[in-house]
Amino acid sequence: MVLKGFHKKYVRPIFRRVNHHKSRWFDRKDKVLILTYHRILPVQDNQSFLNMVVPFQVFQKQIQCISKQWPIISFNDLKQQQRDGKSKAPLQVLLSFDDGYYDHFEYVFPWLKEHNIPATFFVCTDAIGEKYPLWDWYLYEKLKGRFTERQIQNFIFKYKKLMASERHKKILMEFGINVYHAFEQERCMSWDEIRIMAKGGMTLGSHGCSHSSLAGTSFRISVQEIQESKIKIEENIGQKCGVFAFPYGARDDFNNTLLEVVYRAGYEGCFSNIHGYNHFLMGDRLIFNRVIMTSNTDVRYLLG
User: Fold this and answer.
1) Which residue of 64, 123, 203, 249 has the fewest C-beta atoms within 10 A of its own C-beta?
2) CB within 8 A of 94, min separation 6: which ones?
3) pLDDT of residue 281
């Protein structure tokens, strides 16, 4: 753990600085950089589970710094530029927010709207309007103090590939925890809040239904989550849902077959959490890389 902490704090930043300059000077193709956040909260402590929480003040400073360097565009703007075959700038940035927590509506949306900055918000439809967070966050909240962060992470990785009903039963049996128990202070957004964001110029995308790793569940359930989440979002916001983000988004959380299902369902774009930038002209039916943002991310070297 000490060695891993040293690598994360000292080695990785150096590695990314070198790669940033390498990408900037030797890859002259026009680029699209997609940043993804999870929780944005008015906290002072930068430490959080898997670095998922970014303090609101840190978030503001990061976006202000980024917007001074590169244009921040919407997903729809990107797709129109790609259809036209002409990029507006050598490097453009998209903002994305995963999981659909209430803090996106309470803190992020008003600030973005005030500064006329577009973003895409990915929501899990099963949790919308409920009085509990997503199952993995709830599990962490209930297990912290009993287990180490690494142990909790391993529990989540074990359960993420189960169907929601099976996962609920196993967690209840192993830990005595009901992940659907009310926990309103950590809830996800309601449909009313999501509609306000959509009318306010934000893009709403699908993050599936149950926040499961779709490559691990049955193919039938995965197809159902990809298709039904899109339909439900469109019915509730009265707008097209044109972009999908695979839950967790690592290489073992999706495959080419599921990627094909996404595009056959009518989505125009698909996001992963694989680290990296994207070339502007990347072809159809491919998956976009993203950069996961933390409170310690150095925004001067995002291409690394």
Assistant:
1) 64
2) 32, 33, 34, 35, 72, 73, 74, 75, 78, 119, 120
3) 85
